[in-house]
Amino acid sequence: MTSRAARRQCIAVRAESRSGGGGGFLAGVLVGGAVFGVLGFLFAPQISAALLTDEQRLKLPRFLEEEAKDPEKTKQDLADKIASLNSAIDDVATQLKAKEVTTEVEPDSVVA
């Protein structure tokens, strides 16, 4: 009889996680994002070259297509722009100083 009773006994197995299981999901999202990000980075240029014609491809902005300029010329261009900006700042500063002088003089003339 004990063998029949053992056969009829139902066994239930239950798995539990103490942390709630959210960490596993987050780890899966991060690993999956990294793997598919790398795959997309590697294969996207090849796929777009196979699917698109030259007219359909995105054109780079003009400043990205330009060839490398001479570093000395670039340095001189930047120096010219900085000099121009400094000149404009000096002009504005003198205008503001002139306005301060006129506003200081006006209250005295009104009182007198």
Automatic annotation (TrEMBL):
<keyword id="KW-1133">Transmembrane helix</keyword>
<keyword id="KW-0812">Transmembrane</keyword>
<dbReference type="GO" id="GO:0009535">
    <property type="term" value="C:chloroplast thylakoid membrane"/>
</dbReference>
<dbReference type="InterPro" id="IPR040377">
    <property type="entry name" value="Ssl2009-like"/>
</dbReference>
<dbReference type="GO" id="GO:0009706">
    <property type="term" value="C:chloroplast inner membrane"/>
</dbReference>
<protein>
    <submittedName>
        <fullName>Uncharacterized protein</fullName>
    </submittedName>
</protein>
<feature type="transmembrane region" description="Helical">
    <location>
        <begin position="21"/>
        <end position="44"/>
    </location>
</feature>
<keyword id="KW-0472">Membrane</keyword>
